[in-house]
Amino acid sequence: QTTAELDAMVTVCRACPRLVDWRESVATTGRRASFAAQPYWGRPAAGFGPAGAPVLVVGLAPAANGANRTGRMFTGDRSGDWIYAALHRGGFATQASSEHAGDGLELQGIRIVSAVRCAPPQNKPTTAEKATCAPWLHRELELAEPTLRSILALGSIGWDATLRTVREMGWVVPRPKPKFGHGATAELTTPHGRTVRLVGSYHVSQQNTFTGKLTEAMLDEVIASL
Ligand code: SF4
Hints:
Elements: H1 3-10, H2 17-28, E1 55-59, H3 67-70, H4 78-89, E2 110-114, H5 127-144, E3 150-154, H6 155-168, E4 185-189, E5 195-201, H7 206-209, H8 216-224
Parallel strand pairs: 1-2, 1-3, 3-5
Antiparallel strand pairs: 4-5
Helix pairs in contact: 4-8, 5-6
The chain binds iron/sulfur cluster (SF4).
């Protein structure tokens, strides 16, 4: 299986009834007024970025009116304004903004996925939904492992999902379990003996960026370390 095949398969997943209802109801009757005339994706968001990238970003989930509308991770929402501007400053993105899926933005050396691939109500997936979506991250990591250098976990959900998944895959994870924090790091060892560095960052959600909990300088610093 290739990364392109994985992307195609994930976009038709319907394994979580509550999330299928939510993503599709937002996409039909629940559109934000300012986007009412736009088509909505209303499906799981596939990974964005080249296969074989040495850096994998693991976010939380698509935003209901962001990637659930545009079909591309962090595209068309405030979180995307932050992450793509920072990735552009760090040399990973060809442009600093990301409005819609056909805007010409390309990533270089980095691929973005989420721990949960469908938009959840209040951005809060249940424990069962996180577990149901975990095999997609598992497969993503299997495909990425041969060339992977670093994983950037956005928020504690991305951090925990990554650690849980790699442990299941037989990677060696330090004990006690590494704690999430902005700038936290952990060295992971794959079954092939490769070392992959896990780096934590506060999520680029508005509640962090509007309040100043996450600044551009803080984000630039973790991206420069990848
Ligand atoms: Fe499938 Fe994941 Fe979406 Fe659940 S959250 S329906 S497992 S893609």
